[in-house]
Design goal:
9 strands, globular, seven-stranded mixed beta sheet, alpha+beta
Length: about 600
């Protein structure tokens, strides 16, 4: 067992300390930040778990362990919507630090113990470690980040620990406890996010291949497989009962339907009776019940009373009768489209870092080709380890590209490939090795300096501003929630959303439930505003909503289409509310002036 020189250990610790400082600053800065739509669903699950028990964590689309962890924290801090966002940021920081510690260990067992040939630039190992931590900063701290309420940083933690375990298995052939730990980690990782189910299969196959090389150690890998299978099956059984099909999670299937097979997405499930929610090859998607066609107003599902927006709390029931299928043309278009998504995201978050990653990838391929051509084993490091790490990183990226991807989804796997590339650099000739190392370091350093000089500087300045006793502007959703409470709405009240339903953090902060909405994607906003402006039409809609125990309409103004005067504007947020506690039709409206589809669905 080799031991890293003290100087390299010190550089690795400096990287960890820097990551901790950035994470603490981000967690404080984003402590009351607006939730993304995914975060709203996770918080709904967490609150339901904290108050109603473990059954609330069985969800066809969202994995249970992250909201379960949030729910445990809420048992100590309370399930009040006013404190949930703070709780989620605190939990996010803990998960972030686990990912940073896992990355610290992975860097220590790989890059800090790599021997570089003579002729390499001075301090090459320290430069490689600095590159690794700069990549962590750019892609985990920034591109994924604590500003989102998602389990993606936790995925990074699981992947980094698992790859470190693989390296330890390969180098030291550890015993049963080590294999038991690997199986448990991967099983819990699947509970954390469904993508780690197929990733676990890749990692366990790689570990098994390593163990079977001596042909006498099959019991230990079998133990790891058994532990993972037991944890996986314990989640798959209730998930399969919930969805009505054998499944390890419906996320991949639904994304296949939406982004590859072009089945109607959730935004299209509220359509008039003339709409068509059938894709001949993908089958039928269940539509939302139409309450009235002019303006088009749909009701929401009532089976999940704690959901802020049921259609995104668990979309799987709407697609129970749909079926995904394989079409090579559609898949090829999806790969091209997803690769472009990742490229565009890298241009936004880390353009020079993206160039550096391509350079490192090209160097890794060149080193691999050279090693295979010469058929020599390097005295410092073999081809097996970097190939193993690259496989663990590359296969999940391919899986995402086949269906749907955002940069945050593939960050941990990109970092695995980067580690593999840095491990292969010693196999290159001196000139190529030095050129790639220095060029990658310069490119990533430039991106890192820019990000620290902009994002972190702004965060630090605002934080110092607050510590001096001065307040900062509240988030828009917080202002809207306060305005809705001021209008008499309270926890559990049902509302209708007009042009405001897709990111309903405003409703969650106020403790409200969206139980009707108008879809701007399938119905023009000008016609919606016209209907709400007409007194008779508004009275008819209000009466219809009151029958469904809906207390208010919350609307978001669109440019050039101001809301009528009977909507109370909430400061300068663009939101307005009209409570529905009044009487029915005005005296001048003896009967509804326009036809309605009633309350029935299609």
């Amino acid at each position: 067992m080799t031991v890293a020189p003290p100087g390299l250990v010190r550089w690795n610790r400096i990287g960890l300390a820097g990551a901790a400082a950035v994470g603490a600053l981000d967690a404080w800065f984003y402590r009351n930040w607006d939730a993304n739509p995914d975060g709203v669903s996770y918080l709904d699950m967490a609150r339901a778990f904290a108050t109603d028990g473990i059954g609330a964590l069985i969800n066809g689309y969202w994995s249970p362990l992250y909201p379960g962890l949030l729910g445990v924290a809420m048992k100590f801090t309370g399930a009040d919507p006013a404190t949930n966002y703070l709780t989620a940021r605190a939990v996010g920081f803990v998960v972030y630090m686990l990912a940073a510690l896992a990355w610290f260990r992975l860097v220590r067992v790989t890059l800090a113990e790599t021997e570089w040939p003579q002729g390499t630039v001075r301090h090459a190992p320290a430069v490689a470690i600095a590159i690794a931590w700069a990549l962590f900063f750019m892609l985990v701290s920034q591109a994924t980040g604590l500003h989102l309420m998602t389990p993606d940083i936790g995925v990074a933690a699981v992947v980094f620990v698992a790859v470190g375990e693989l390296i330890a298995l390969h180098r030291f052939g550890l015993g049963q406890a080590h294999w038991l730990r690997l199986g448990t980690l991967l099983g819990l990782g699947y509970w954390w996010k469904a993508i780690l189910f197929p990733v676990a299969g890749v990692i366990l196959l790689a570990a098994t291949a390593m163990a079977w090389r001596p042909r006498d150690a099959w019991r230990d890998p079998l133990l790891s497989w058994a532990v993972f299978a037991a944890l996986a099956v314990s989640l798959m059984i209730p998930l399969s009962r919930h969805t009505g099909r054998v499944t390890f999670g419906e996320t991949g299937r639904l994304n296949q339907l939406w982004y590859v097979n072009r089945a109607p997405m959730v935004e299209w499930l509220c359509m008039s009776s003339t709409g068509n929610l059938q894709n001949p090859r993908a089958g039928v998607a269940r539509a939302e019940p139409v309450l009235t066609e002019q303006p088009l107003l749909c009701g929401t599902d009532e089976t999940t009373p704690w959901a802020t927006l049921p259609i995104w709390y668990d979309p799987s029931p709407w697609y129970r009768d749909s079926r995904e299928y394989l079409d090579l043309g559609e898949t090829a278009r999806a790969i091209v489209r997803n690769a472009e998504y990742v490229r565009e995201a890298m241009v936004i978050w880390a353009p020079l870092t993206g160039v550096a990653l391509l350079l490192l990838g090209a160097a890794m391929l060149a080193a691999g080709v050279t090693a295979l051509r010469t058929r020599r084993d390097s005295a410092a490091i073999g081809l097996f380890e970097p190939a193993l790490i690259a496989m663990v990183g590359g296969i999940p990226i391919l899986e995402y590209l086949l269906v749907y991807v955002e940069l945050r989804h593939v960050v941990p796997f990109i970092l695995c490939i980067a580690v593999a590339a840095l491990l292969t650099l010693p196999r290159l000739g001196a000139r190529a090795r030095n050129g790639v190392l220095l060029a990658a370091a310069a490119l990533i350093a430039a991106d890192t300096a820019y990000r620290i000089g902009t994002q972190q500087r702004v965060e630090a300045a605002i934080t110092v501003h607050e510590w001096r006793g001065l307040s900062r502007p509240k988030q828009r959703s917080e202002v809207v929630a306060n305005g809705l409470r001021g209008a008499g709405l309270g926890d559990g009240d049902r509302v209708a959303a007009v042009n405001a339903y897709w990111n309903p953090e405003w409703a969650q902060r106020a403790g409200l439930r969206i139980r009707a909405y108008t879809p701007v994607l399938t119905y023009p906003i000008d016609r919606i505003v016209a209907s709400l402006t007409d007194p008779c039409e508004f009275a008819r809609v209000a009466d219809l909503l009151r029958q469904r125990e809906i207390r208010a309409i919350v609307a978001k103004e669109a440019p050039a289409y101001p809301l009528p005067a009977h909507f109370r504007r909430i400061e300068d947020t663009g939101f307005a509310v009209a409570t529905l506690d009044g009487a029915g039709l005005p005296p001048t409206c003896a009967a509804p002036t326009r036809s309605s589809s009633g309350t029935g669905g299609r």
